[in-house]
Amino acid sequence: MHTPSAPILTSFSNPEELVDSLARFILKAQRESIEKKGKFTIAFSGGSLPAQLEGLIGRPGVKWDKWQVFYADERIVPLDHEDSNHHLCTSVLFSKVPIPHANIHPIDYALASDPEELADAYEKELIREFAQKDSARFPVFDLILLGVGPDGHTASLFPGHELLSEEDRWVAEIVDSPKPPKERITLTYPVINHAARVAFVLSGANKAETLREVLDNPEAGLPASRVRPISPGQVYWFVDDAAAEKVQYPKTPFKL
Protein backbone atom coordinates (compact mmCIF):
# COMPACT_ATOMS: atom_id res chain seq x y z
CA MET A 1 0.00 0.00 0.00
CA HIS A 2 1.39 3.38 -0.97
CA THR A 3 1.57 5.83 1.92
CA PRO A 4 0.87 9.55 1.46
CA SER A 5 3.79 11.92 1.18
CA ALA A 6 4.07 14.78 3.67
CA PRO A 7 2.59 18.07 2.40
CA ILE A 8 5.00 20.69 1.06
CA LEU A 9 4.29 24.18 2.47
CA THR A 10 5.71 27.26 0.76
CA SER A 11 5.01 30.77 2.01
CA PHE A 12 5.45 33.94 -0.03
CA SER A 13 6.03 37.47 1.23
CA ASN A 14 3.51 39.14 -1.07
CA PRO A 15 0.56 38.24 -3.33
CA GLU A 16 2.47 38.98 -6.54
CA GLU A 17 5.20 36.48 -5.67
CA LEU A 18 2.60 33.84 -4.82
CA VAL A 19 0.69 34.36 -8.09
CA ASP A 20 3.85 34.24 -10.19
CA SER A 21 5.25 31.15 -8.45
CA LEU A 22 1.91 29.34 -8.72
CA ALA A 23 1.82 30.05 -12.45
CA ARG A 24 5.35 28.70 -12.86
CA PHE A 25 4.40 25.59 -10.88
CA ILE A 26 1.32 24.98 -13.06
CA LEU A 27 3.39 25.52 -16.20
CA LYS A 28 5.90 22.89 -15.09
CA ALA A 29 3.10 20.42 -14.30
CA GLN A 30 1.58 21.12 -17.71
CA ARG A 31 4.88 20.62 -19.53
CA GLU A 32 5.61 17.29 -17.81
CA SER A 33 2.07 16.02 -18.44
CA ILE A 34 2.07 16.95 -22.13
CA GLU A 35 5.48 15.34 -22.62
CA LYS A 36 4.19 12.16 -20.99
CA LYS A 37 0.74 11.82 -22.56
CA GLY A 38 0.02 14.77 -24.85
CA LYS A 39 -2.50 16.55 -22.62
CA PHE A 40 -2.95 18.23 -19.23
CA THR A 41 -5.91 17.32 -16.99
CA ILE A 42 -6.74 19.82 -14.28
CA ALA A 43 -9.61 20.46 -11.86
CA PHE A 44 -10.50 23.85 -10.37
CA SER A 45 -12.42 24.85 -7.30
CA GLY A 46 -14.00 28.28 -6.91
CA GLY A 47 -13.97 30.88 -4.16
CA SER A 48 -10.87 33.05 -4.13
CA LEU A 49 -8.80 30.53 -6.08
CA PRO A 50 -9.48 31.55 -9.71
CA ALA A 51 -8.25 35.10 -9.07
CA GLN A 52 -4.91 33.65 -7.96
CA LEU A 53 -4.40 32.24 -11.46
CA GLU A 54 -3.98 35.57 -13.23
CA GLY A 55 -0.28 34.80 -13.60
CA LEU A 56 -1.23 32.38 -16.40
CA ILE A 57 -2.80 35.10 -18.53
CA GLY A 58 -0.45 35.96 -21.38
CA ARG A 59 2.31 33.76 -20.01
CA PRO A 60 4.47 32.15 -22.71
CA GLY A 61 4.46 28.39 -22.80
CA VAL A 62 0.88 27.74 -21.71
CA LYS A 63 -0.53 25.17 -24.16
CA TRP A 64 -4.20 25.96 -23.71
CA ASP A 65 -5.23 23.62 -26.51
CA LYS A 66 -3.83 20.69 -24.48
CA TRP A 67 -5.76 21.48 -21.29
CA GLN A 68 -8.81 19.48 -20.19
CA VAL A 69 -10.52 21.42 -17.39
CA PHE A 70 -12.97 20.00 -14.86
CA TYR A 71 -14.39 21.36 -11.63
CA ALA A 72 -13.43 19.97 -8.22
CA ASP A 73 -16.87 21.04 -7.10
CA GLU A 74 -19.71 23.08 -8.49
CA ARG A 75 -22.85 24.73 -7.20
CA ILE A 76 -26.03 23.53 -8.89
CA VAL A 77 -26.98 26.91 -10.32
CA PRO A 78 -27.18 28.20 -13.91
CA LEU A 79 -23.76 28.43 -15.54
CA ASP A 80 -24.04 32.22 -15.78
CA HIS A 81 -25.09 32.61 -12.11
CA GLU A 82 -22.82 34.58 -9.80
CA ASP A 83 -22.52 31.53 -7.50
CA SER A 84 -21.30 29.28 -10.33
CA ASN A 85 -17.64 28.24 -10.17
CA HIS A 86 -17.73 27.90 -13.95
CA HIS A 87 -18.97 31.48 -14.28
CA LEU A 88 -16.25 32.70 -11.91
CA CYS A 89 -13.46 30.81 -13.66
CA THR A 90 -14.71 32.01 -17.04
CA SER A 91 -14.89 35.62 -15.89
CA VAL A 92 -11.43 35.85 -14.35
CA LEU A 93 -9.46 33.41 -16.51
CA PHE A 94 -11.00 31.48 -19.41
CA SER A 95 -12.44 34.57 -21.12
CA LYS A 96 -8.93 36.06 -21.18
CA VAL A 97 -6.98 33.12 -22.60
CA PRO A 98 -7.27 31.10 -25.85
CA ILE A 99 -8.57 27.87 -24.31
CA PRO A 100 -10.94 25.96 -26.63
CA HIS A 101 -14.52 25.94 -25.36
CA ALA A 102 -14.70 22.17 -25.82
CA ASN A 103 -11.80 21.69 -23.40
CA ILE A 104 -13.83 23.05 -20.45
CA HIS A 105 -16.27 20.67 -18.80
CA PRO A 106 -19.08 22.36 -16.82
CA ILE A 107 -22.06 20.62 -15.23
CA ASP A 108 -25.23 19.93 -17.24
CA TYR A 109 -27.62 22.35 -15.56
CA ALA A 110 -30.53 20.81 -17.48
CA LEU A 111 -30.34 18.04 -14.85
CA ALA A 112 -30.56 20.44 -11.90
CA SER A 113 -33.89 19.06 -10.67
CA ASP A 114 -32.18 15.76 -9.84
CA PRO A 115 -28.78 16.38 -8.14
CA GLU A 116 -27.94 12.67 -8.06
CA GLU A 117 -28.51 12.36 -11.81
CA LEU A 118 -26.47 15.52 -12.38
CA ALA A 119 -23.58 14.09 -10.32
CA ASP A 120 -23.79 10.80 -12.23
CA ALA A 121 -23.70 12.70 -15.54
CA TYR A 122 -20.59 14.58 -14.44
CA GLU A 123 -18.98 11.32 -13.41
CA LYS A 124 -19.69 9.99 -16.90
CA GLU A 125 -17.92 13.09 -18.27
CA LEU A 126 -14.87 12.09 -16.25
CA ILE A 127 -15.16 8.50 -17.43
CA ARG A 128 -15.10 9.68 -21.04
CA GLU A 129 -11.87 11.52 -20.40
CA PHE A 130 -10.08 9.02 -18.16
CA ALA A 131 -11.46 5.50 -18.15
CA GLN A 132 -10.65 4.50 -21.72
CA LYS A 133 -7.02 5.46 -21.37
CA ASP A 134 -6.26 4.74 -17.74
CA SER A 135 -6.50 1.36 -16.06
CA ALA A 136 -6.69 2.86 -12.57
CA ARG A 137 -9.82 2.44 -10.47
CA PHE A 138 -10.03 6.23 -10.18
CA PRO A 139 -9.05 9.03 -12.54
CA VAL A 140 -5.56 10.44 -12.09
CA PHE A 141 -5.65 14.19 -12.57
CA ASP A 142 -2.36 15.88 -13.38
CA LEU A 143 -3.30 18.70 -11.02
CA ILE A 144 -6.20 19.61 -8.74
CA LEU A 145 -6.33 23.18 -7.43
CA LEU A 146 -8.19 23.74 -4.17
CA GLY A 147 -8.99 26.39 -1.60
CA VAL A 148 -9.96 26.01 2.06
CA GLY A 149 -12.91 27.55 3.87
CA PRO A 150 -12.78 28.95 7.43
CA ASP A 151 -14.30 25.67 8.69
CA GLY A 152 -11.58 23.62 6.97
CA HIS A 153 -13.80 22.42 4.11
CA THR A 154 -12.33 21.96 0.67
CA ALA A 155 -14.11 21.39 -2.63
CA SER A 156 -17.62 20.71 -1.22
CA LEU A 157 -16.41 18.30 1.44
CA PHE A 158 -17.61 19.74 4.75
CA PRO A 159 -16.75 18.84 8.37
CA GLY A 160 -18.85 16.01 9.76
CA HIS A 161 -20.63 15.30 6.48
CA GLU A 162 -21.29 11.74 5.34
CA LEU A 163 -19.52 12.42 2.03
CA LEU A 164 -16.21 12.38 3.90
CA SER A 165 -16.48 8.59 4.01
CA GLU A 166 -17.45 8.06 0.34
CA GLU A 167 -15.12 5.43 -1.11
CA ASP A 168 -16.61 4.41 -4.46
CA ARG A 169 -18.17 7.27 -6.41
CA TRP A 170 -16.02 9.67 -8.39
CA VAL A 171 -18.53 12.52 -8.16
CA ALA A 172 -21.19 12.91 -5.47
CA GLU A 173 -24.07 15.29 -4.92
CA ILE A 174 -24.62 17.27 -1.74
CA VAL A 175 -28.09 18.69 -1.06
CA ASP A 176 -27.52 19.96 2.48
CA SER A 177 -24.39 22.08 2.19
CA PRO A 178 -23.92 24.14 5.37
CA LYS A 179 -22.76 26.95 3.10
CA PRO A 180 -25.25 28.20 0.49
CA PRO A 181 -26.18 27.24 -2.12
CA LYS A 182 -27.19 23.94 -0.52
CA GLU A 183 -27.14 21.83 -3.70
CA ARG A 184 -23.74 21.05 -5.18
CA ILE A 185 -21.61 18.31 -6.65
CA THR A 186 -18.07 17.50 -5.62
CA LEU A 187 -15.16 15.26 -6.46
CA THR A 188 -14.71 12.67 -3.71
CA TYR A 189 -11.59 11.89 -1.71
CA PRO A 190 -10.68 8.81 -3.79
CA VAL A 191 -10.44 11.05 -6.86
CA ILE A 192 -8.66 13.92 -5.13
CA ASN A 193 -6.20 11.59 -3.44
CA HIS A 194 -5.32 9.80 -6.67
CA ALA A 195 -4.15 13.04 -8.31
CA ALA A 196 -0.52 13.40 -9.32
CA ARG A 197 -0.50 16.83 -7.65
CA VAL A 198 -2.92 18.73 -5.44
CA ALA A 199 -2.18 22.39 -4.75
CA PHE A 200 -3.98 24.39 -2.08
CA VAL A 201 -3.83 28.17 -2.47
CA LEU A 202 -4.50 30.41 0.54
CA SER A 203 -3.84 34.03 1.33
CA GLY A 204 -4.74 36.50 4.05
CA ALA A 205 -4.60 36.64 7.84
CA ASN A 206 -8.22 35.42 8.02
CA LYS A 207 -6.96 31.98 6.90
CA ALA A 208 -4.16 31.75 9.49
CA GLU A 209 -6.08 29.84 12.18
CA THR A 210 -7.55 27.42 9.65
CA LEU A 211 -4.14 26.70 8.13
CA ARG A 212 -2.67 26.11 11.58
CA GLU A 213 -5.44 23.63 12.40
CA VAL A 214 -5.09 21.79 9.09
CA LEU A 215 -1.30 21.41 9.09
CA ASP A 216 -0.37 21.40 12.78
CA ASN A 217 -3.33 19.40 14.03
CA PRO A 218 -4.18 16.91 11.23
CA GLU A 219 -5.54 14.39 13.71
CA ALA A 220 -8.50 16.74 14.19
CA GLY A 221 -9.59 15.51 10.78
CA LEU A 222 -10.66 18.71 9.07
CA PRO A 223 -11.60 17.96 5.46
CA ALA A 224 -8.54 19.74 4.02
CA SER A 225 -6.28 17.66 6.31
CA ARG A 226 -7.60 14.50 4.66
CA VAL A 227 -6.27 15.48 1.25
CA ARG A 228 -3.18 13.31 1.16
CA PRO A 229 -2.49 11.94 -2.32
CA ILE A 230 -1.15 8.42 -2.33
CA SER A 231 2.46 8.05 -3.43
CA PRO A 232 3.77 9.18 -5.86
CA GLY A 233 1.16 11.96 -5.68
CA GLN A 234 2.02 15.10 -3.74
CA VAL A 235 0.11 17.89 -2.01
CA TYR A 236 1.46 21.44 -2.06
CA TRP A 237 0.40 24.50 -0.10
CA PHE A 238 0.92 27.91 -1.74
CA VAL A 239 0.24 30.53 0.93
CA ASP A 240 1.28 34.05 1.80
CA ASP A 241 3.06 35.00 5.01
CA ALA A 242 -0.13 36.39 6.54
CA ALA A 243 -1.89 33.03 6.16
CA ALA A 244 1.17 31.18 7.48
CA GLU A 245 1.66 33.39 10.53
CA LYS A 246 0.45 30.83 13.10
CA VAL A 247 1.76 27.64 11.50
CA GLN A 248 4.52 25.60 13.14
CA TYR A 249 4.66 23.16 10.22
CA PRO A 250 8.03 23.44 8.41
CA LYS A 251 8.15 25.64 5.32
CA THR A 252 10.03 24.73 2.16
CA PRO A 253 11.57 27.35 -0.15
CA PHE A 254 9.93 27.45 -3.56
CA LYS A 255 11.81 25.66 -6.29
CA LEU A 256 10.86 24.01 -9.55
Automatic annotation (TrEMBL):
Enzyme Commission identifier(s): 3.1.1.31
GO BP term, example: carbohydrate metabolic process
Enzyme class at the top of the EC tree: hydrolase
Pathway in which the depicted protein is active: Carbohydrate degradation; pentose phosphate pathway; D-ribulose 5-phosphate from D-glucose 6-phosphate (oxidative stage): step 2/3
Glucosamine/galactosamine-6-phosphate isomerase domain location: 14-237
UniProt family annotation: Belongs to the glucosamine/galactosamine-6-phosphate isomerase family. 6-phosphogluconolactonase subfamily.
Function text: Hydrolysis of 6-phosphogluconolactone to 6-phosphogluconate.
Record-given protein name: 6-phosphogluconolactonase
Originating organism: Steccherinum ochraceum
